[in-house]
Design goal:
By secondary structure, the chain is mainly alpha-helical. It has 15 helices and two strands. Helices cover about 75% and strands about 0% of the residues. It has a two-stranded antiparallel ribbon with strand order 1-2.
Amino acid sequence: MRITKLFKEFSENEKTGGLLLIACTIISMIAANTYFGSAYSHFWHTELGTGSIEYWINDGLMTIFFLLVGLELEREIYIGELSNIKEALLPIFGALGGMLIPAGIYLFLNYGANTQSGAGIPMATDIAFALGVLSLLGNRVPTSLKVFLTALAVIDDLGAIFVIAIFYTKTIVWFNLAVAFGILSFLFVLNRLKVKSLIPYLLGGLVMWYFMLHSGVHATITGVLLAFVIPFGNGDKKSTSYLLQDFLHKPVAFLILPLFALANTAITVSASLQDIITQNYGQGIALGLVIGKPIGIVLFTYLAVKLNICHLPKDLNWKKISGAGCLGGIGFTMSIFITLLAFESIELQNNAKIVILVASVTAAIIGFVVLNVVLKKKQA
């Protein structure tokens, strides 16, 4: 199995970044519920120009996170695990099941209610958090399992991006959207002309982001679109895509995602978890992430293998896939991101975030325990 140096670097950054993400979340939750909680929460809503600090993190810095996701996806498609269709189909089916089943569970409980729009919340997997938990198992984890979980989470993120673009766009300003895509087309031409300098792409991306921001389509979509017009070449260390992806890993893992966690988990817990979890949207999120994710991932990959659509790598088995499926229930970053788009009510947003945190931690513990037992048996 091909494991590039960039994948190893990405995996290491994601592991450490995931642990940092957990630490930031704990710090933020504690800070928001202390004597200084009001001041702490108010800080993130401090106006900075035309928006709050939280706004610039969610709509600005997170675009860079999506740019990195796009670059990773591009690399996987061209020379990575998704370049071989037979190998790619296993995580693709896993991701598909891991999106459809949780969304189906949520809609079953919330169809027709004012919380129906939250169906996208339990569809996502947090790469950093999931790989952070996986790293706790050390070198007992087979590389194929790391690759499967990473590819699944990247495809999952792509699915979440489509969900955001299609279902969470309310009003479209067609002129601004046309300008944004006009810039994208111009950058594509530069790509075809083999212009390798990053400067025109980054400047064009910045202008494209501005018009996308004012088009009604969520501005973070710009990051993914921009990734696919940045020259990939043969994907070696000198390629423009590689250089940018390599540069972005650490700022995203150690600055942008921790800031996102700090800003979006400053939640004052005013209602009990029992009250929240008895609500249909709370049950939909919790069951979708903790139960729906592993069922969807295992079921769809099992059917794909049994139907001979794809094959299971030699060092993987269904117990390991089940453990990875449980870790797929760690929604966190993307789930919180979609929550902000799905619900307008601050109370609903905060309650949903609490459920996401509890469900993600539960999924992490279950996944860790399952894989720990499975990998110990293998060693014995």
